[in-house]
Amino acid sequence: MRLPSQHRSLAALAVAVVAGVTLAGCSSGGATPGTSSPPKADLSGVTLNVAADWSGAEQANFEKVLAQFESDTGAKVNYTSYGSNVATTLNTKIAGGDPPDVAVIPQPGLLTSLAKAGSLIPLSADTLATVKKYYSQDWVDLGSVDGKTYGVWFKGSNKSTVWYNTKVYDNAGATVPKTWDDFVAALQKVSDSGVPGLSIGADVGWPLTDWFENVYLRTAGPEKYDQLTQHTIPWTDPSVIDALTILSKLWSNKALIEPGGAQRTFGDSVTEVFGNPPKAGTVYEGDFVAGNITSQTKSVIGTDAKFFDFPSINGSGPAVVGGGNAAVQLKDNKGAAALMAYLASPEAATIWVKLGGFTSPNNGVDMSAYPDDTSQQIAAALVNAKTFRFDMSDQAPSAFGGTAGSGEWKILLDFYSNPTDIQGTAKALEAAATADYK
């Protein structure tokens, strides 16, 4: 998954879809090595064009996955990064009659819009069988439109991780919390030790939507989450008021939170916790925080920097808000179909898993393939979560859920700055949603 500021920019074509994924019962043990390879077609002389939003290290790692496909089949695969403009660029290519053979896209809403426009090829029977074998049925549903399955969710992300500085916590005598009350108590202990308990970076607003979604999923439950995602219930619903009230109590507690969060970027919020010296003890955001820690600080993941699952609220079970990247086929040819089958296999996902910085929702991937305890913990939380829901704001119309300075981003940022106005915030969210959900 790209950083959310990039990932969310694709929401221009998002359609509000139900993305509820219940993952109970998924295996965390994985498939037996050597038994998961898909059939290897002879594609000598075939050239395929593949596009995704990945660049830099992510592109290099995905190209290693594609290189194995080339070695197995004899095909040549050309990769193009569409950066943060996947939706716009892909639709321009389609309109011009020159789409890639396969694209990897980061939103269920984009998948839905492309499928409804007739731009996608459904999965072959064999590939669908592979997907059903290694993915929860609900992941299959997430890649399906009107009874046909188009997407292989190659990459997943866990946005229910809370990261902490182990030295700060040890110095404060704080322990890893399981519940929301314990979480607040841990922040208090850290603050009492002389370091603010929590750093929040909220300058453009999107981190606050993730805060809300995690609290709302745990307090309202998955069915209400789906209804609010679709805007079939209003943002003035009592369930929204409940979630905003919990956030209000936390965000109003100036003794726990490092000042300046309304202007602080997400990246800076990570640096505040893991820089030298640390200026806070804890930062909430998704599994991509690990990349920021590695690139921006000298802290070591798994030693100086660890995470715990977003805490339970009112006895809620394990739940994950997250995202992902789905492979879709845009050209009807043998090579593209073979590549889709390959990307559905544990073998393909395992290549990137071993390289690090990657979480697969494919439950055929052996957990031992993840290169360290932290990445195993992230993957296990994603695969074994009792409830998974795709990021709500990424499913909303762009004007509401994905635009700086307007909609949910701005309203929650205003609420962060003035967290006492719960009713006014709910009314503002409802007014914006009513205008933007067409």
Can you describe what's shown?
Strands 1, 2, 3, 4, 7, 12 and 13 form a seven-stranded mixed sheet that branches. The chain is built from 20 helices and 13 strands. The longest helix has 18 residues, at 56-73. The protein has two domains: 4-158 and 321-384, D-Maltodextrin-Binding Protein, domain 2 (3-Layer(aba) Sandwich); 161-319 and 393-436, Periplasmic binding protein-like II (D-Maltodextrin-Binding Protein, domain 2, 3-Layer(aba) Sandwich). It is an alpha/beta fold and 438 residues long.
- Architecture per CATH nomenclature, i.e. the level-2 architecture of the largest domain: 3-Layer(aba) Sandwich
Task: Give the overall shape.
Answer: globular
Structural class: alpha/beta
- The CATH class assignment of the largest domain is Alpha Beta
CATH superfamily (homologous) name of the largest domain: Periplasmic binding protein-like II
Counted by DSSP, the helix tally is 20
> What percentage of the residues does DSSP assign to strands (E)?
5-15%
Q: How many domains is the backbone divided into?
A: 2
Share of helix, binned: 40-55%
Give average pLDDT, whole number.
90
End-to-end separation in angstroms reads 28 Å
Largest sheet: 7 strands, mixed
State the low-pLDDT regions, or none.
Answer: 1-36
* Number of E strands: 13
- The radius of gyration over CA amounts to 21 Å
Could you say what the CATH topology of the largest domain is called? D-Maltodextrin-Binding Protein, domain 2
